[in-house]
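Journal club side-thread
Mid-discussion, someone asked how the predicted structure for our own chain would compare to the paper's figures. Pasting it here so we can look after the session.
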Amino acid sequence: MSLPHCARSTEAFRTAHQRFAVQRPLEFEASRRRLGVHIERGFLQRTSAGDFAIVIFEVDDPARMFACVASSDDHLTPIPGLLRQVLSVDVTQPPSLVRPSRLRVARG
C-alpha cells in the first residue's frame, strides 16, 4: 500500500521507525510474526507532490493483520493513533482489500 502523508508527519514517521524497528529489532520481528507478517518493507518516498509512505506487507490474511493491530496492546505495534496521525490510516476501519495481481517478477 502507498499512503500519502503530510510533510509535517515525516519526522514522526522516522521517529516511529527508529523506536520500533531499529532500537529493538528482535522484539519488532517477533511482534510482526504474531501479526502473521512474513516480510514488511517500508520506504519514505519524497516527491514533488509530497511525501509518501510506501509499506509492503507480505501476509496471508491482511484483514486479520489490521484487526490485530487495531486491538493490540503490544508496545512494538504502532498504536492506532500513531498510524492515524502519520499515515491517516484508521486501522479500526480496515480498508476494502483487493489482492493485486503481479505484473512482473524480475530475476537477477
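Post-session note: Residues 83 and 98 are 21 Å apart (CA to CA).
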